[in-house]
Design a protein that fits this description.
505 residues; alpha+beta; 4-stranded antiparallel beta sheet
C-alpha cells in the first residue's frame, strides 16, 4: 500500500560475495526474505533515502537483485540435517522422502511418510540464521551509504531493524512455530472449515518441523477451477478466520503470501499451513481499530487524530494533515463500511490516498508506526488472495460480528461538537449540476466517495473541453480535499452554452 519496497537486499548484495553453492542458496533466500518482510513499509524507507539525496539515479546502481526461483538444497543434504537433528529411532521412522521440494521462506518442505501417514517435513536451510544476523547488521552501513542522517524528518530505520530482528528470531525457531500451530488450532476450533495442520511433536526441533500433509488446491487452482459459489465460501472462511484471530486473540499471520494457504472442497475448508511469522498486537491497537470501525459503520464521528495516535503514529507529524485524517480512515476502511458486496479488485485505495494527500503523503508515512505498516502488509496479502479468487464479499457483517462486543476507546469515540467541523468530514455528498441558459439539464447527487472517480461521471464532451482549457481535474480534487472536504464549489466550467458546476454538499 505504501509504495516500493526498500529492498535492503540491494544494498546488502554489494557488500557480500557468495562463497560456495550452499551459501549462495542461503544468501539468496535471505535477500528475498528480508525484501518480503519489508514489504509495504519498506516503501517509506526507499522513498526517504531518495528524498534525502534528491536524485533516484544515485540509487540505480543498487537496482539489481537475483529473484530467480530457488531450487533449494539437495535431498542428501536434507537427510543429513534430519539425521543430525532427530534421534536415530525417529529418523528411521521417516520413509519415502520426496525429492521434490516446496519452498518455505527460510527452508524447504518435503513430503514423506511416517507410520503410513503422509507428512510434510519442513527443514531449515543450514546456517541461514547466521546469515540473517550478518545481513541485518548491514543496516548499520546505510548512513554511510546515503551520506545523510537517517533521523532527518524523524524516521528511525533502526525501529524497522529491531522489528525485523524479532521476526527473524521467531521464524528461525521452529519451536515457536509449533507453539503458534497449537495456539491457532485452539483459536480456530470454533470455526467451521478452517484449521491448521496437526503437529508431530516427537519430530520437532528448532530446525525441523513435521506436520500432517494437507492435500488440496492452492490459490491459483481454486481461482481457475472452482465454481463461483465455492470460491466465495472459502473467501468468506479465510476472511472470517483472519479477523477472528486479530480481534479476539490480537494476532495475525505475518506472511500471508499465496503459497501459505491450502483449500479443500466438498466441504470447503481453508488451511493456514505456515505460521512461522505470527505478529502479536497490543489490545490498545486492536481495540482502537474496532472502535473506529464500529463508529464508522454506525455513521458516528471519530477523533481520527487520537485513532492514529493509538496505533502508534507520531501525533506532531500528523498535525500537518489533521483535517484530512478522517478522509484517510474512510479510504482505508472502505470495503468494511459498504452496505453491499464488494470485489477488492475494485478497491482504488492507492489512487484515493494520492488524491487526498498528494506530496503530503510523506507526513502520513513518516508518522506511521512499525506495527501499523506490518498490519497493513499482512492484510495486503489477504487482499491479494481475494483478488486472485475474484469474488465479491459483503465485508461489513464479517467484521461487525467480530467487533460487536468491544468497548469503545474513549479517546476515539469522544468528539466534542465544536471539534466535529474541524476533525470530521463536513461534506456528505457530491453534486453535479449542468445547465443550459436558465434550464437545468442535469442534477445528480452522488455519495461523497464518487469524488475519487469524478472523471467517470463527466461526459466525454465535457472532458474534452476540460482538456482544451488545460484544467488539471485531479489537482482540483486534491486541493478541494486539503481542508478535510468542507462543503464548497470545487469546479465549474462555462463555454457560453452549457455550464457545469460540481460541489461538495
Amino acid at each position: 500500500m505504501f509504495g516500493e519496497s526498500l529492498k535492503v537486499a540491494k544494498f546488502i548484495k554489494q557488500y557480500k560475495k557468495y562463497r560456495d553453492a550452499k551459501d549462495e542458496i542461503s544468501k539468496q533466500k535471505t535477500l528475498q526474505y528480508i525484501q518480503n518482510l519489508l514489504g509495504h513499509e519498506g516503501g517509506l524507507l526507499i522513498k526517504f533515502l531518495q528524498y534525502q539525496r534528491g536524485q533516484k539515479d544515485e540509487l540505480d546502481q543498487f537496482e539489481h537483485i537475483n529473484t530467480k526461483i530457488m531450487t533449494g538444497i539437495h535431498i542428501d543434504e536434507i537427510r543429513q540435517v534430519l539425521k543430525s537433528e532427530l534421534k536415530e529411532e525417529r529418523y528411521e521412522m521417516i520413509k519415502d522422502i520426496s525429492t521434490e521440494a516446496f519452498p518455505a521462506s527460510i527452508g524447504q518442505v518435503h513430503k514423506a511418510n511416517i507410520e503410513n501417514q503422509s507428512v510434510a517435513i519442513k527443514v531449515q536451510y543450514p546456517s541461514i540464521e547466521k546469515v540473517f544476523k550478518e545481513q541485518l547488521r548491514l543496516f548499520d552501513l546505510l548512513p554511510k551509504f546515503t551520506g545523510a542522517p537517517l533521523k532527518k524528518l524523524g524516521i528511525d530505520i533502526y525501529l524497522y531493524q529491531k522489528k525485523l530482528e524479532e521476526m527473524v528470531d521467531r521464524e528461525c525457531n521452529y519451536l515457536i512455530e509449533a507453539k503458534n500451530l497449537e495456539q491457532w488450532s485452539f483459536f480456530l476450533a470454533p470455526l467451521e472449515g478452517v484449521s491448521v495442520p496437526e503437529l508431530k511433536k516427537d519430530f520437532l526441533t528448532k530446525k525441523v518441523l513435521v506436520m500432517n500433509f494437507i492435500e488440496g488446491d492452492g490459490v491459483s487452482a481454486v481461482a481457475k477451477n472452482w465454481s463461483p459459489d465455492d470460491k466465495k465460501k472459502v473467501a468468506f472462511q479465510l476472511l472470517d478466520a483472519y479477523f477472528k484471530v486479530f480481534f479476539e486473540n490480537q494476532q495475525l499471520q505475518g506472511d500471508t503470501n499465496l503459497g501459505n494457504f491450502i483449500f479443500e472442497k466438498n466441504p470447503t475448508k481453508v488451511w493456514f499451513i505456515d505460521l512461522g511469522q505470527v505478529i502479536h498486537f497490543s489490545s490498545k491497537f486492536t481495540d482502537s481499530i474496532a472502535t473506529a470501525l464500529k463508529r464508522k459503520m454506525a455513521k458516528k464521528p471519530i477523533n481520527a487524530l487520537s485513532f492514529f495516535e493509538n496505533l502508534g503514529f507520531d501525533r506532531e507529524k500528523l498535525l500537518a494533515i489533521e483535517a484530512r485524517l478522517d478522509l484517510i480512515v474512510d479510504i482505508l476502511f472502505e470495503p468494511f463500511l459498504l452496505d453491499f458486496s464488494f470485489n477488492l479488485n475494485d478497491w482504488k485505495y492507492k489512487e484515493n490516498l494520492e488524491l487526498v494527500l498528494g506530496e503530503d503523503k510523506w507526513f502520513f508515512r513518516s508518522a506511521g508506526s512499525v506495527d501499523f505498516f506490518i498490519f497493513m502488509k499482512s492484510f495486503m496479502g489477504i487482499k491479494t488472495v481475494l483478488e486472485q479468487l475474484n469474488v465479491s464479499l459483503f465485508f461489513k457483517p464479517i467484521v461487525e460480528k467480530r467487533i460487536a462486543n468491544f468497548t469503545e476507546v474513549e479517546s476515539i469515540s469522544q468528539v466534542e461538537q465544536k471539534e466535529i467541523q474541524h476533525r470530521v468530514r463536513p461534506a456528505q455528498k457530491l453534486r453535479i449540476l449542468v445547465t443550459e441558459g436558465d434550464i437545468e439539464k442535469v442534477k445528480v447527487t452522488l455519495p461523497f466517495e464518487a469524488i475519487y472517480e469524478l472523471e467517470d461521471f463527466i461526459n466525454d464532451d465535457i472532458k474534452q473541453k476540460i482538456r482544451e482549457k488545460n484544467i488539471k481535474l485531479k489537482q482540483i480534487i486534491h486541493d478541494s480535499l486539503k481542508d478535510g472536504a468542507k462543503t464548497k464549489e470545487i469546479f465549474s466550467l462555462d463555454d457560453g452554452q452549457k455550464r457545469i458546476l460540481i460541489s461538495m454538499v
